[in-house]
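Run log // design_07
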């Protein structure tokens, strides 16, 4: 049975159990969420993390009748938002929309965070994943990935917009340099992919490495062109975009998105939060949300989320910060 089917079956059973409990219990037995929530997002409005964080909040709000406030705290490759989210009281009222970069890579390259790779946070579920793409202005100097590779192979210094200094997008640029002896220069834009793609369109930088969901509007309008998806599989929203392996290049880099809570949750509260969020990521409504932003259905339950995080920690430890 496919993971998605298993999750949906688990979610349905959990929902039934909660319904039966509610019928026979008191108000004190009400399952999470039972009060207003805040969702902290480490990037600006309109980007992939913002769309996903607000999507989680909207679905929690529609299903449970509570108010969910989405708050954007930009900067520090999302660590400003994560520090705030993970410093909050562990009472179920504060969540963070974490990227694998902000949660697992940044603790290796930045001191003074309120959390480490393994401590200070409670991973609840994975809500999505997305590959990065290399994108340029449609009226710019590069008509194809072959043109870009030719320029990079010649030793030209090409400026690449990334979503923060030390972010995974920045790391991707450095990997391209190391693997191909290129001279790409990262230009960080702390407000995320939306700010960087405007710089690409204005000709201030040559290209951008980021997820595509937050700039899909510019792609659809014909202002931005994807030179390559930096993965082995293309994206549902951009099926004609070539993948990186078609050019003999290998950059296994993308990002996962998790809902996280401050560490120290009461065990019963954590179980209630996990049950509700597992039901959310397994639902048809969430699959439709992902499809609407051009992402495949890639959510994971709590246990599989923790397994993926453990794997990523091991992979990141062998990289040079």
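design_07 sequence
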């Amino acid at each position: 049975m496919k993971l998605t089917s298993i999750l949906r079956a688990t979610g349905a059973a959990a929902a039934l159990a909660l319904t039966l409990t509610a019928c026979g219990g008191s108000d004190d037995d009400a399952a999470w969420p039972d009060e207003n929530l805040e969702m902290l997002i480490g990037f600006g409005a309109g980007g992939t993390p913002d769309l996903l964080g607000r999507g989680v909040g909207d679905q929690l709000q529609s299903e449970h009748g509570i108010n969910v406030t989405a708050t954007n705290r930009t900067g520090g490759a999302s660590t400003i938002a994560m520090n705030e989210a993970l410093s909050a009281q562990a009472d179920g009222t504060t969540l963070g929309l974490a990227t694998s970069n902000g949660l697992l890579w940044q603790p290796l390259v930045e001191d003074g965070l309120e959390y480490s790779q393994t401590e200070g946070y409670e991973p609840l579920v994975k809500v999505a994943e997305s590959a990065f793409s290399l994108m340029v202005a449609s009226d710019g100097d590069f008509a194809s990935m072959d043109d870009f590779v030719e320029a990079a192979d010649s030793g030209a210094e090409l400026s690449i917009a990334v979503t923060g200094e030390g972010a995974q997008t920045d790391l991707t640029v450095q990997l391209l340099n190391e693997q191909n002896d290129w001279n790409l220069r990262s230009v960080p834009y702390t407000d995320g992919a939306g700010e960087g793609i405007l710089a690409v369109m204005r000709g201030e930088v040559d290209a951008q490495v980021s997820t595509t969901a937050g700039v899909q509007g510019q792609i659809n309008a014909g202002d931005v062109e994807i030179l390559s998806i930096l993965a082995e599989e293309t994206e549902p929203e951009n099926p004609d975009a070539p993948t990186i392996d078609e050019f003999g290049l290998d950059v296994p880099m993308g990002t996962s998105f998790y809902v996280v809570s401050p560490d120290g949750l009461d065990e019963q509260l954590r179980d209630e939060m996990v049950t509700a969020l597992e039901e959310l990521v397994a639902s048809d409504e969430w699959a439709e949300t992902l499809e609407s932003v051009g992402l495949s259905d890639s959510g994971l339950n709590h246990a599989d989320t923790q397994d993926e995080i453990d794997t990523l920690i091991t992979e990141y430890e062998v990289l040079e910060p």
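The domain at 133-247 is CATH 3.40.190.10 (D-Maltodextrin-Binding Protein; domain 2).
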